[in-house]
Specification:
By secondary structure, the protein is α/β, with parallel strands linked by helices. It has one domain: Alkaline Phosphatase, subunit A (3-Layer(aba) Sandwich), CATH 3.40.720.10. 33% of the residues lie in helices and 12% in strands. α4 packs parallel to α11.
């Protein structure tokens, strides 16, 4: 009974905060004319650690070096506990479920629908995915609930779209060949995203895999890398899902910039789409603060 009341109260607070329970969705605005445009946007989602555990921690020296060099959102908060609703906020701008065992299909507007409509390309690179196009359940250390793309109706009902969900091992080859899509969604496995592994392991994984990206001519030309955490630790429910670290990394970004603006996951969804020239923004992305302050 106590759990049921907690879930009801949490959902009501979220609905009150975004106005979804009482207001019609705001019309999607056109992109901010001052929003810098990118050819390649990459989003990496890490797991279950709060800001204070990450920023300044000796356990993640590489990530902290990026935070000092590029942009850091110091007042960024996840929306919920547990994981899955945060992944849906990052990709649909909507609350879908708090059930980590969710096995349904999501028909709400989402990042895939809007990228396809705008003629942009995408891939979801999931570490330890059994094979390209895999839509099945957990295959540890791959966790389905960390890969929101496998729930979208555009993907589950279209084999060609499902084929854009690939093992992370394809990422380096696509980078070397200059064939990264407009948007790359990257899901480390449950060890390398710090869900089950250590922060040292997560940091070493980032260092091994993304030094080549940041030094590539493709990224230096028009790249944007976003690193965030799905939620804070279980003891941290500030603003719903806890205070988390979010980095905005680009050669066109302000160097060493620290933002004090309040952001949540729908702002990252807005940034992804607007920075690729997509004007129709799903769910709360249409009313969430823009993140243009990070760029020159």
């Amino acid at each position: 009974m106590l759990l049921a009341w907690f879930l009801i109260i949490t959902l009501n607070i979220w609905l009150w905060g975004c106005g979804a329970a009482t207001q019609a969705p705001a019309p999607a605005p056109t992109p901010n004319p001052s929003m810098r445009q990118f050819g390649h946007v990459i989003l990496i989602v890490e797991e279950n650690h709060s800001y204070e555990e990450i920023i300044g921690s000796g356990s993640m020296p590489y990530l902290n070096s990026l935070a000092k060099t590029y942009g850091l959102a110091t007042q960024y908060y996840a929306n919920f506990h547990p994981s899955i609703p945060n992944y849906f906020m990052l990709t649909t701008g909507q609350f879908v479920t708090i059930d980590d065992a969710f096995a349904g299909t999501v028909r709400a507007d989402n990042v895939v629908r809007e990228l396809n409509a705008a003629g942009k390309t995408w891939k979801a690179y999931a570490e330890s995915l059994p094979q390209p196009g895999y839509l099945g359940g957990d295959s540890y250390p791959y966790l389905k609930r960390h890969n929101p793309f496998v729930y979208f109706s555009e993907v589950t009902q279209n084999p060609a779209q499902a084929g854009k969900i690939v093992p992370f091992t394809q990422f380096s080859g696509d980078l070397i060949a200059g064939q990264l899509p407009s948007f790359s969604f990257i899901t480390p496995n449950a060890i390398n995203d710090a869900h089950d592994g250590t922060l040292n392991e997560a940091d070493a994984w980032l260092n091994a895999n993304f030094v080549p990206l940041l030094s590539s001519s493709l990224f230096r030309k028009d790249g944007l890398l976003i690193i965030t955490f799905d939620e804070g630790n279980q003891a941290d429910s500030d603003r719903g899902g806890g205070h988390v670290a979010t980095l905005i990394i680009s050669p066109m970004g302000k160097r060493g910039y620290k933002s004090t603006t309040f952001y949540q996951h729908a702002s990252v969804l807005r940034l992804v789409l607007e920075s690729l020239g997509v004007s129709n923004l799903p769910g709360a992305a249409s009313i969430s603060p823009r993140m243009g302050e990070f760029f020159q």
